[in-house]
Amino acid sequence: MATIDLAQTPIKMANEVIRGYGAIHQSIEITNPDARHYIAVGLTNPIDVHIKGSAGYFCGGLSDGPNILVDKNVSWGVGDNMQSGSITVNGNAGAIAGLALRGGDIIIHGNMGSRSGQVMKQGTLFCAGSSSFMTGYMMYGGRIIILGDSGEKIGENMAGGEIFVGGEIQSLGSDAMLTEATNKDLESIHAFLSKYGFSFSGTFKKIVCEGKDLTYGTPEPRTKPIAFPEFSGPQSAYWNAKVQEDIRIKSKIGRYRVRGFGAARPIPHFNDIAFKKDIDPSKIAPDVTGKINLRTCIGDRHGGRALDLSMPVMIAPMSFGALSPGVKQALGIASSMSNISENTGEGGMYSVERAEARQLIAQCLSGRLGWNIHDMKRSDGIELYISQGAKPGLGGQLMAAKLTPEIAAMRGIPEGMDLRSPSRHPDVLGGDDLIMKIREFREAVGWRLPISLKLGGGRTRDDVKIAYKDNLDFVELDGLQGGTGAASNEVLEYVGIPTISAIMEAMDGLAEIDATGQLPIVLMGGIQNGVDAAKALALGATAVGLGTPMLVASGCIGCMQCSTGSCPLGLTSQDAKLTKRFDVKKGALKMHQYLESIRWQLAAITDALGYDNVNQLNRDDLVALTPEAAALTRLPYDPDYRRNHKYASVASPSDKKETGLANYPKHSFELIRTMGNATPDNIEIQPRILSESLAPRKNPYPEGRPAHLDDFVFLSAALTRLVIDPYREACSTETCITRSIGIGPKKEDQPSIDLENPFFVTGFNDAPARVQSALAQILSRSGCAYIGRCPLIQTGGKTAAYPWLQLLKPGEAPNAVADGIIYELDDAFTPVSPDRVRPEQLLGLSVSSSAVQKTLPFALENSFDLILLDQTAGIGRPWVELSSPIDLTVMRDAVHGLRAMNMEEEIALVNFGGLRSGTDVAKALAYNCLGSVFSLAVGIALGGKIKGNRLVFVDDLNEKDLIDAGLHWIKGTAQEAAIIARCTGKTNVHNLEPEDMRAITTAAATALDIPLASGPEKREAF
Fold first, then answer.
1. Which of 95, 532, 799, 1014 has the greatest number of beta carbons closer than 10 A?
2. DSSP code per residue over 231-295
3. How many angstroms separate the CA atoms of 704 and 699, rounded?
4. Phi, psi (degrees; rounded to nearest 5) at 592
């Protein structure tokens, strides 16, 4: 037996020596371990390793085959991702023992820490003592045996596998249930105990998945994409067809909507930026690619073997599962033909793709799906997924329709579930943990490969500083325009920052720590052609990543059915009838030709600007064409540039043939397909493609366009702020409407209303009686309140109880039955009597922007409980949201006024006007409101049809249907607000704050005094 003394040998060298002995099947004794981290990481031989003491983090992690004996204790993550063999710990184990276990046995003689067995897939995790809380959290398979007691929430959100407890169970986790252990179970357990020298005479309790949360439940009805001019742009109606469709579908499925692709509304982007110098494509030399140095090496910052790219382009991560097997193969072929890198995406390495791709990056997701040491060693680089642009703050999603037996087996998870991967890595809870994880990966592959990080744009300025200090080799940074196979519609649209903002924040963050140019950034998210890529490089990116355009080049038509598995071209489907429609060779050739067109454009632009190396492109080459682009990038604003260039695409609101994606209009699809069909030697078509790619788009935010709620986005949690799992962990929406929301409990005699959700409804006193009666039931069951001149009518002798706040004009008599009184003031402030009929009644004022400044001191002096901020022409008018513009400045003026008096939390703020979704409410809550008032949105959910400035209720819904629709809509709307809060790192929707938001238009930034997503203002703190 060989001996390694860790008092004399550094762990990096020791692991290399251990692997050397392993190769010749030589057993090893390790002395003086002194709880060092990473001992025996990455070992893939069936040898015995005896650790004579205690071990630190990840002992025996990422291994396959060894039998490891630890004399004393181990720290976090013992046996992380082990595939076979055994690890015996004679003492105690820290948290997440058996993390992502894929096989073999882990035997702990003492106790084990929290979340042990998290996301494990196979094998046995055994604890002779007791376990801490959330053992088996999100486990997918395998077996956990605990002879002692378990902590609370055992089996939390488990999707498969079995847990056996011999002692007491403190509490079961969500979707876990007790069942009887079978004779076969017990025989197997006792055989295991006998094998490792244990005995047990007690009774085992068996815990399995109950199965309630494995799928979303009611499937979302399929719809055709609505042409983007109908729901976005300056001419689209506020309550447009897309808004109404979202409301109606939510009233059917009772949850947030899920779809694929990326953000559908206009986002400031590279086509709002131009090159200062006039580039004439007709004068570009046909052989320009031979004149320009495009070669880019990336990833050797810490001694690993760099990725050697023929041009500064990578293929973005897209998984086998999200994509069909043929498309993954075609991507591998195309990457080799163009001599760039491909990426596995989440879910594991598809061996056919590995065989085709010359350079392949393996992506590690939080659920460690398909992750193993052998694929790590087969890869050319390793990427740790933190978040992505399309759904920052969320993990991956793969609907059951696409989870075939092959993909489920590859990922190590049960079939038939709607897969929602964890939103954070079990062993990365902050920057310090990230250092440990990166080091484990380096040790596992002998420091031979580059280690990168995938980040969605959000708190990028500080996230990138952590990435730099944690010794990453490069960062793949993904903006809001990035695509995905499946995500919540609200997160797709409103969480994250534009791609041009993401690169600005990254560059500014590195500059603040004097690290400019020291951490390569691979920028992705909506980059469609070589012109976009050149602009990204000029703004500071080292390379760019391409995802969605690769699919468009090979045939994608933008039907936005990516999540359903019914892609008619077979690109994002696993249905054999559909996937056979995709021709791998033809698809790969189109992808390759698209990439070669990118190459030609990059070389042409570099040459036209007077350079011979693509890395010479810089900010001085660029000019901004819109106020938004100028403000977000600090580039000089030159609107005159537009006058000399034709527009790339002009879409009218009546153009129903447009795509459903403002960032991928018809023109983009046509141009990308042309690139995919153009052979590299076609010297006639390449200049035309370049000319069209250079043409700017029309400004989506023209002068005079008012601020819109859609112009605000949320900053996701990632590294700077801890990610909370939006899919599973409860996010409170409980709301107390009361005068003071300061620290501590409210006073016993202080008027208040407790709600389950921060939602009010108004405007239904003239609705049909059956609608009013149904709404009363809905409010009662969902814990929401009504604001109106009188209570809702209830038919059939029903008496549903719900909070009612009476809306009055000054001088009208209040009702003693009302839970609150709200006086509707005119535009000019008029004092009203502050008297209550009952002392426990809430007292409020409804005010518009013109009256808010005079209302605030009066309300505070007279102990009013709430102010209803009316963003319309008058809350008392029937369906006023249809005819009135939405004035966001009333929120700003109220908050600024209270802040100036140092009374920001001394009165409750509730807003009304233009609220369509839970995301809209989340924005109001972040801006210091306690709740929001819906009207038209609820009417549409209850079957109302818009007729001019009226809402008309049809007679084809009975009261039960109305109640179901309303409850579903409120549930889905509450989910939307909660998932937004979770993505920002909050466990309560009322913890949202202005700092969590950014504006993407100058009008919005002015209207609410919210900073732009990037630009000249330095973020002082978080």
1. 1014
2. TSSTTS-TT-HHHHHHHHHHHHHSS--EEEES--S----GGGEEESSPP-GGGS-TTGGGTSB--
3. 12
4. -60, -45
| Residue burial 58-91, b: 16+ Cβ < 10 Å; e: rest | bbbbbbbbbbbbbbbbbbbbbbbbbbbbbbbbbb
Degrees (nearest 5) of the Cα angle 723, 726, 731? 100
Please write the tens of the pLDDT for every residue from 578-637: 999 999 999 999 999 999 999 999 999 999 999 999 999 999 999 999 999 999 999 999
Partnered with residue 544 across adjacent β-strands are 313, 523
Structure tokens at 646: 């034709």
Alpha-carbon span 935 to 920, nearest angstrom = 13
Question: What tokens were used for 658?
Answer: 């447009």
Q: Tens digit of pLDDT for each residue in 964-996?
A: 999 999 999 999 999 999 999 999 999 999 999
Q: 51 and 71 in contact (C-beta within 8 Å)? A: yes
Distance CA 907, CA 844 (A): 9
Segment holding 164, helix H or strand E: strand 162-165
Distance CA 699, CA 694 (A): 15
The residue behind tokens 């489907």 is: 573
Q: Which residue has the tokens 């006007």?
A: 913
Q: What does residue 567 show for φ and ψ, rounded to 5 degrees?
A: -55, 120
- pLDDT of amino acid 219: 87
- For residue 381, the model assigns a pLDDT of 98
- Find the DSSP H helices in 905-958: 918-926, 936-941
Taking a C-beta distance cutoff of 8 angstroms, is the pair 498, 274 a contact? no
Q: Which residues contact 917 (CB under 8 A, 6 or more apart)?
A: 246, 247, 490, 937, 973, 976
Q: Tell me whether residue 184 is exposed, middle or buried, using C-beta atoms within 10 angstroms of its C-beta: 0 to 12, 13 to 18, 19 or more.
A: exposed
Distance from C-alpha of 389 to C-alpha of 870, rounded to nearest angstrom: 34
Q: What is the DSSP string of 545-563?
A: EE-HHHHHHTT------TT
pLDDT computed for residue 20 by the predictor: 95
Cβ count near 827 (within 10 Å): 11
Tell me how far CA of residue 165 lies from CA of 148, 171, 207, 211, in angstroms.
7, 12, 8, 20
pLDDT surpassing 90 at residue 315: yes
Q: State the distance between the two ends of the chain, measured CA to CA, in whole angstroms.
A: 54
Structure confidence at residue 745 (pLDDT)? 56
Number of Cβ within a 10 Å radius of residue 172:
18
pTM: 0.96
Q: Which residue type is seen at 534?
A: A
Contact yes or no for 450/1008 (Cβ under 8 A): no
High-pLDDT (> 90) share of the chain, %: 87
Confidence of residue 642 (pLDDT cuts 50, 70, 90): low
CA distance 834 to 816: 14
Angle between helix 685-694 and helix 666-677 axes, rounded to 10 deg: 150
What single-letter DSSP state applies at residue 99? T
Q: Contact at 8 Å (CB) between 978 and 597?
A: no
Segment 518-569, tens digit of pLDDT: 999 999 999 999 999 999 999 999 999 999 999 999 999 999 999 999 999 9
Q: Is residue 1018 predicted with pLDDT exceeding 60?
A: no
Residue 764: left (phi > 0), alpha (psi -120 to 50), or beta?
Answer: alpha
- Integer-rounded Cα Rg, in Å, for the chain is 30
Residue 683 CB partners (closer than 8 Å, separation 6+): 286
- Burial class from Cβ neighbours inside 10 Å (0-12, 13-18, 19+) for residue 854 reads middle
| CA of residue 252 relative to chain centroid, distance | 24
> Is 601 in contact with 275 (CB distance < 8 Å)?
no
Distance in angstroms (rounded) separating the CA atoms of residues 373 and 115 = 22
